[in-house]
Specification:
- The structure is a single chain.
- With 190 residues, the chain is mostly helical.
- The chain has one domain.
- The protein is 59% helix and 9% strand.
- The chain has 6 helices and 3 strands.
- The chain has a 3-stranded antiparallel beta sheet with strand order 1-2-3.
- Strand 1 and strand 2 form a beta hairpin.
- Helix 1 runs antiparallel to helix 3 and helix 5 runs antiparallel to helix 6.
- The radius of gyration is 20 Å and the shape is globular.
- This is DUF2017 family protein.
- Pfam families: DUF2017.
- InterPro entries: AosR.
C-alpha cells in the first residue's frame, strides 16, 4: 500500500493505491463486519455472547444495567445502522469485485482476454475518497480494529492474550489496518 495523500485537484479528497490482495482483505473484513452487525439483535446486545459486539457497542452505564438497557433501547438501532452504512461505503469505494467467468472451452480470443484480465488483476488499484468517504473509512477501520482486538484478546496493556496458530495472522491484519488508518489520518491532517 502506498500512503494516502491529498488529491492535488481537491484538498478535501485523498487518494492511495492498494494491491489487489489488500483490496480483497478490505472487502472480506468489511463484509464480515456487516454480517456481524446485521445479525445483532439490538434488544439483546448488552447480553450478547459475542464480546466483539459488546466492544463495538459498549454499555453507556456500566454500573447500572437497567439504565444501560434503557439507553441501548433508544440508541442501538441507529448506531448499528450507521456502522453498517459506513462499512458499505468502504466497500463501495473499493469498486466492483471482479467476477470469475467460467467457460466450458474458451476460444483463443477468450484466452487472450483472460490473460489481459489476469494482468490487470495484478495491478495496484487507486482509491479516491471524498470527505464523507474518509469519515466512513476511519470509522470502519476503527470498528475492524476493535473487533480484531477482541478476537486477539488484547487487554488494556496492549498485549494479545491469544496465542494459538491463528493469532499471528490476525495480529498482522490488526497492525495493517492500523497503518492504513494512520496514513489516512495524516493525509487529512495536512
Amino acid at each position: 500500500m502506498m500512503q494516502f495523500m491529498q488529491a492535488s485537484e481537491n484538498a478535501d479528497s485523498v487518494t492511495a493505491r492498494f494491491e489487489p490482495v489488500e483490496i480483497g482483505l478490505l472487502r472480506l473484513a468489511a463484509s464480515q463486519l456487516i454480517d456481524l452487525l446485521e445479525a445483532a439483535e439490538t434488544h439483546r446486545l448488552g447480553t450478547s455472547g459475542d464480546p466483539a459486539l459488546r466492544r463495538l457497542l459498549p454499555d453507556a452505564y456500566t454500573d447500572d444495567p437497567e439504565a444501560a438497557a434503557e439507553f441501548r433501547r433508544f440508541t442501538a438501532d441507529d448506531l448499528l445502522e450507521r456502522k453498517v452504512r459506513n462499512a458499505r461505503c468502504l466497500l463501495a469505494t473499493l469498486g466492483e469485485e471482479p467476477l470469475a467467468d467460467v467457460a466450458d472451452e474458451p476460444d483463443d480470443a477468450e484466452l487472450n482476454d483472460a490473460d489481459t484480465a489476469a494482468d490487470d488483476a495484478d495491478q495496484p488499484v487507486t482509491i479516491d475518497l471524498d470527505a464523507d468517504d474518509v469519515q466512513a473509512w476511519l470509522r470502519t477501520l476503527t470498528d475492524l480494529r476493535l473487533t480484531l482486538a477482541e478476537r486477539l484478546e488484547i487487554g488494556s496493556d496492549g498485549v494479545p492474550g491469544r496465542s494459538d496458530d491463528e493469532a499471528p495472522f490476525l495480529h498482522d491484519i490488526y497492525d495493517w489496518f492500523g497503518m492504513v488508518q494512520e496514513s489516512l489520518v495524516y493525509a487529512i491532517d495536512v
